[in-house]
Amino acid sequence: MNHFAKKFLASAMLGTLLAFSAHAATLNIHNGGDPQSLDPQKLSGDWENRIAGDIFEGLVTEDAKDNPIPGQAESWTISPDGKVYTFKLRDGIKWSDGQPVTAGDFVFAFQRLVDPKNAADYAYLQFTIKNAEKINKGEITDLNQLGVKAIDDKTLEITLENSTPYFLNALMHYTAYPLPKHVVEAKGQDWVKIGNIVTNGPYKPVEWVPGSHVTTVKNDQWYDTKDLKIDGAKFFVLEDQEAALKRYRAGEFDILTDFPTDQYEWMKKNLPGQAHVAPFSGLYYYVVNSQKPPFSDKRVRQALSMAINREVIGPQILGTGELPAYSWVPPGTANYGEPAYVSWKDLPYSEKVAEAKKLLTEAGFGPDKPLHAVLSYNTNDNHKRIAVAIASMWKPLGVDVELVNAETKVHYDQMQRGQVEIGRAGWLADYNDPDNFLNLLVTGVQMNYGRWSNPEYDKMIKEGNAETDLTKRAAIFKKAEQLALDESAALPIYYYVSKNVVSPKIEGFVDNIQDIHRTRWLSMKE
């Protein structure tokens, strides 16, 4: 995005002057995609979360294992009906410019998040808060009706629509970070420029060169700075996994956040203990544009889904053992039990292909009338490998596939605008609950890239979230999931494993289900 480049290049020069000396313990992280902003309400990717979670801190934050622990709040109480949370803020917490962090900063941030004029893509993650959805949809115009109130500077009260089992986990997400009201109001959109931005996390950004890197240093105003073992981090933009691995081997990176899977066996032998592959709460999937013929025909979507040989992708194409996905919610998700599965899950692959051909014939396609499809993915060796494999699996059906790739930012922007026929997507859980995955298929949600829409599904998701009995809630959600799978709303392909490479000199890196590793928990041996 050119406007970001223009906007921040001048301020990056100032940041360079502030960059710390070479001998400081700086963590060099291969971060993948290019962040579109440092504003927590303008983010959507894990590569942005890695930066945001170092420079901001919510009421609740995560420990090294990704469990909720007190952040800016030292304690909280929950009402007997589970709807009202009262948070006591820590004494003496400050923004990086020395101004106090107050309950009013949280009220300001939550109101800005749901205010429709700010068009925050992820506002829906906090729709459990009273009136959040109605305000976001323009049904209520008074922002003070939101269920977030400052009782005084150090006490924040949040009222929910319904008792929500995962609410503390949702508060660890960047949509729940406070914002420096005094800076945002003074600087407007420019508040995130280096030189203007102030943050309340363990670190603060001092340099941002779009397309290259973001640099952070310790925030001396944070309450626990004395315990930080790492002086700062440099988050590098690099979407070429092969190049990243070369730079890691040359000692330029301390951590890779992904790697070319065809190198996994080599790394196990030659870099023992450095490649981390662990179970992960995430789904790799393809969306199909349900608003665009012929993909609006569910027979076409189901045929494409049935012809994907998921069993070979993890072990053979990727080589890191990802498990085939036949559900929308990954197994093992909290508050759910066993997910729903597609009805054809256990058919032999040859029967799946035969059925897929039959469905396409019924939809009017065949050898004389091939189905033309454009498959889009964001630039990455592993995504390309999978796209090539799936295109070849579709070929016997008479599907003529054109592959198109774009950098991450462009790819997701096109998907959100509905400009993609079939698109690669991935979802990493923001909190451990089925709602986080099921929400992706709700009508109007920004991340519903395939634009699939079903009023009955939407109704069940609402009904499930209003249900306080967890067993009944899970049953309603499972019924909704089954409906989406029967409609081939999207095509689940595999459940993620997290893939990191960690230098032996880094200590404190703990594999966890959400693959979140904040710099504050790490240390570095010389």
Automatic annotation (TrEMBL):
Similarity comment: family membership: Belongs to the bacterial solute-binding protein 5 family.
Gene Ontology CC terms: ATP-binding cassette (ABC) transporter complex; outer membrane-bounded periplasmic space
Source species of the chain: Rhizobium leguminosarum bv. viciae
Lineage, broadest ranks: Bacteria, Pseudomonadati, Pseudomonadota, Alphaproteobacteria, Hyphomicrobiales
Name of the protein in question: Peptide ABC transporter substrate-binding protein
Alphabetized PROSITE patterns for the sequence: SBP_BACTERIAL_5
Signal peptide stretch: 1-24
Pfam family, one: SBP_bac_5
InterPro entries: Peptide/Ni-bd, SBP_5, SBP_5_CS, SBP_5_dom
Primary site of residence: periplasm
Domain Solute-binding protein family: from-to ranges: 68-447
